[in-house]
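Example 3.2
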Amino acid sequence: MVYQDPAQLDRVFHALSDPTRRAMLKALTEDERKIGDLARPFAMSFAAASKHVRVLESAGLVRRRIEGRAHVCSIEPAPLAAIEEWLAFYARFWSGRLDTLEALLLDAAAPTASPTEEQES
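Structure, written as tokens:
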């Protein structure tokens, strides 16, 4: 079981709440990228992209290293495992609820014997 620090989950959900950061994170699944490369598809400045990367870093989703003047980013998947575990709890919860609902609906839809049929038996 992955330890789920509530403050850490909040940071990860906050980081993932922005479509630009989600796209940057997805790009990092392919390979490491410089911040300028992450900024390019959004026509944003290095400074704006760097702010997004800082949010991803604070959530633990991205690691940044400096090579000369370049800031190279790579993905850190561990926080996503905690999110997956958090979501799995609710998936099990709703699956159980839907299984119960299905059983109730099947029971309600099942033909019942009329009182005259029961007496004939």
